[in-house]
Amino acid sequence: MMPKSTVSRRTLLTALAGAGAVALAGCDAARSPAATTSAIQLPDPLLVEIDSGLGVLRGADRQSIPHAVASTDGRLVYASAPEGADTAFWRIDAATGTSSERVTLPGRWVPQTVSTNGTTVALTTEGVSVTKERPDARDETPVLIADAGGVRQRLRLPGNFVPEAFTNDLAGLFVLEWLPPNAPDRYRVRVVDLATGRPEPLITRNKAPIPSGAEEEMRGDGRQAVLDPNRTVLYTLYTHQPDHQHTRDRISGRPGSDVHAFVHTLHLEQRWAYCVDLPHPFGEGPADGHAMAITPDGTRLFVVDVTSGTVAEISTQELTVRRTAKLAGDARPAYAAAGRDRLFVGAGSHVRTVALDGLAAGAGWPVRDRVTGLVLSPDGERLYVGQHAAVSWHDPATGAELGRITVPGLVGLHGPALPPT
Do 33 and 381 touch, CB atoms closer than 8 A? Predict the structure, then answer.
């Protein structure tokens, strides 16, 4: 994980205040002049990452939400903005732009993670990406549990924690506990019992308690997290794990294998975790050269390392690597999306395809600029490609560009903004 840049409290609050003004002025389907006059409209609403935070692209609309987090299915966005010494908090329907009434949360908070059913949010005093950053030193972590109606619970966790996900029954909150709290250099996954407010160890895949001292601690880079279509399992890709031992190895006393990358599998209903080791050469190249995607039926998870030109297929039922195959290599950051019969891999200014039946490399095509994200439309008929300040969409079978819009400040693609159920 990369260290998070340090910002003074005054600088942070000034930035929040400025961004909050933009959010309050622009979060109800705000349109840019270019967007309202453009003849080309985006076929599907998209959630994107922009340099000022989260963005929603909807037809010709451009909506910027600086301090926000989206639900895992892309249907809802929860946003916050400073309101005097407190925080305004509200919910946005991503597909339509409709907002709930704003409620006031006492103190300053930013949304960190949303429950899988989209109803409940964990907020912290500083936003930290669980796959990109490490928190500042601290020996206590305030966490606020809220919904669109306001505060539901306050927590003060002893130590340095970052909320990652809720259990599906909303009785627990998975967190990364950073150690040591005042000089964090490694972390472990724990679950906070929301009835008691106490962080506790997870259980093993066999549903046995993890003995004291056997919890695995990670030091490397969390590259990407993917939730399965049933919203019950969260997969996180980790690379560069020096001297790492999985819980199963620490319990058995085995030294563990020389593994540089694995997929951390977290069951959100049963509260167990299990790591699927990736074979050599995964994890030996740059973290951003790796990408992960899951098939629409959730049965297969694919991990790509474009630096070495390797793809691995993981069975989500067996939690094992079924097979690997070789692809053309690339030295630039990787992105992936999976359809029913093809895997799409983007790197540099090129998109490649891989047939899921046999992992044979298929046709590829160039795009106009460096790829910064790949997203398939919900019906699988369009592949969206993030590029420098633009999003294009293509025929997945031929690569033909079907349209393109300008998106100033685009950093990456988050996913489809789906209509409410």
Answer: no
Beta strands in 171-269 (DSSP E): 172-179, 186-193, 198-200, 221-227, 233-239, 261-267
Q: Which residue has the tokens 């592949």?
A: 383
**Listed residue (194, 210, 128) closest to 161, CA to CA:** 128
Whether residue 342 contacts residue 355, with contact meaning beta carbons closer than 8 Å, is answered with yes
Q: Which residues pair with 340 in a beta bridge?
A: none
What is the 3-state composition of the chain as percent helix, strand, coil, each rounded to the nearest 5?
10, 45, 45
Domain ranges of the chain: 1-28+77-200
pLDDT for 244 beyond 70: no
Alpha-carbon distance of 47 to 210, in angstroms, equals 38
- CB-side exposure of 1: number of CA atoms within 13 Å? 22
The sign of the CA dihedral 246, 189, 290, 358 is: positive
d(CA 223, CA 225): 7
Q: Among 5-9, 104-108, 270-274, which range has the highest average pLDDT?
A: 104-108
Q: Is the pLDDT of residue 165 over 60?
A: yes
Structure tokens at 313: 């297929």
According to the model, what pLDDT value does residue 100 have?
A: 95
Higher pLDDT, 33 or 100: 100
Measured between alpha carbons, how far is 417 from 58 in angstroms, rounded to an integer? 8
pTM confidence score: 0.85
Q: How many CB atoms lie within 10 A of CB 286?
A: 18
Place of tokens 């793809």: 311
Kindly tell me if the per-residue pLDDT of 249 is higher than 60.
no
Tens digit of each residue's pLDDT (9 = 90 or more) over 69-118: 999 889 999 999 999 999 999 999 998 999 999 999 999 999 999 999 99
Buried b (16+ CB within 10 A) or exposed e, 341-375: ebbbbbbbebbbbbebeebebeebeebeeebbbbb
Omega before 286 within 30 of 0, i.e. cis? no
Residues in the chain: 421
